[in-house]
Design a protein that fits this description.
Largest sheet: 5 strands, parallel
Number of strands: 13
Strand content: 5-15%
Strand order of the largest sheet: 2-1-3-7-11
Helix content: 25-40%
Bound molecules: iron/sulfur cluster
Radius of gyration: 23 Å
Distance between the termini: 56 Å
Length: 344
């Protein structure tokens, strides 16, 4: 727990205000798993002052609203507005599916007003970035992201929106988002080291979105030989049968890792592309790879289909026995041979 009053006396602090709307709270849960023994100490060391966070701050009710109003009225500088969860515009554009308690006003109106005065606006998680899980199905709450609706620019704030420093919404997409993606973004903003060149075409910070989940996956050798898992718990690559989209998905999950040493694919789960707009509606079961004539529909980024087909058949024919047998086992059945290689 923290009291924002503790920090009011620090004029140089980079003020962050965090709001939650149509989400599960998982991005905050993820944030608290940040790889630091002292989360608030890390913020403080970076000059970041969490003005208010609904789950972490002491203030509630009128005290919390005073902080929000002080930002809107210009009495308190708002450096970064962080929004977690999608924007609920329903019913009929009124936003009344999510009223900010005690204010009689919909959350979307608070977000619009605060985004006007924020130096930077940050969407925390795929819900806030693109609509995410909350926008799935028939989307009865008319959920959208801050500046996107799926992959279409617009969302709540509109395509033309720019925060006071001239940047569009920074989309720290992920479901949940990685705690260090959030911290590194805020630290870079606080240090004035972040500009428009550092976001990709979908508004994501490039320091993590210029990578693919496939990079660093421990199943890479199986991928090379198209030695594929056929069922959960198999060690093989999950692209061909188990729905893995890691070769197409922008994130550094397998090099940055989660909680120090994990990732979805290391845990035996296919990458379901949670950093991408529209991941919530893949049009097929998450754990199944859709195919046409036996060829996966979603081919690796940057790889022409003909190359993939040629490479796959060649590599399958060259698969070592060790890789082929281990691919459909839940433990190593064949270990790498020890041979004299003449390498010293
Ligand atoms: S992005 Fe995922 S984890 Fe974050 S609030 Fe939305 S549903 Fe929850
Ligand atoms: S399981 Fe997914 S991320 Fe890992 S090697 Fe296969 S395609 Fe790449």
């Amino acid at each position: 727990m923290m009291s924002s009053n503790t920090f009011y006396s620090k004029p140089a602090a980079f003020n962050v205000l965090w709001l939650q709307s149509g989400g599960c709270g998982g991005c905050t849960m993820s944030l608290l798993c940040a790889d630091t023994p002292d989360f608030f100490g890390a913020l403080s060391d970076a000059g970041i002052n969490m003005l208010w966070h609904p789950s972490l701050s002491i203030e509630s009710g009128a005290d919390a609203l005073r902080i929000l109003r002080a930002c809107i009225d210009g009495e308190m500088p708002l450096h970064a507005l962080c929004v977690e969860g999608s924007m609920l515009r329903g019913p009929h554009g009124t936003g009344r599916f999510h009223m900010l308690a005690g204010t009689g006003k919909p959350m979307i109106e608070w977000v619009r007003a605060l985004a006007e005065v924020a130096d930077y606006t940050v969407a925390v998680g795929t819900c806030a970035a693109y609509g995410g899980i909350t926008a799935a199905g028939s989307n009865p709450t008319d959920a959208c992201g801050l500046q996107y609706e799926g992959d279409q620019i617009g969302g709540l704030l509109g395509a033309a929106y720019r925060s006071r420093t001239g940047l569009p919404v920074i989309n720290v997409a992920g479901c949940p988002t990685h705690p260090n993606w959030v911290l590194e973004t805020l630290m870079a903003l606080a240090a004035d080291l972040f500009d428009a060149s550092q976001i990709d075409a979908l508004g994501r910070p490039r320091f993590y979105a210029d990578h693919l989940v496939h990079h660093g996956c421990t199943r890479n050798e199986y991928y090379e030989f198209k030695a594929s898992a056929e069922k959960p718990s198999d060690l093989g690559c999950m692209m061909e049968n188990m729905g893995c989209k890691g070769t197409q998905v922008h994130a550094d999950c397998n090099t940055r890792l989660w909680n120090g040493d994990g990732s979805c694919t290391r845990g035996g789960y296919a990458c379901i592309s949670c950093t991408e707009p529209g991941f919530e509606e893949p049009g097929h079961a998450f754990h199944v790879t859709p195919k046409i004539a036996g060829i996966p529909i979603g081919l690796p980024t940057d790889m022409p289909k003909a190359w993939f087909v040629a490479l796959a058949s060649l590599s399958k024919s060259a698969t070592p026995k060790r890789v082929r047998e281990n691919a459909t086992a839940d433990h190593l059945k064949v270990v790498p041979a020890i041979r004299k290689t003449r390498l010293k």
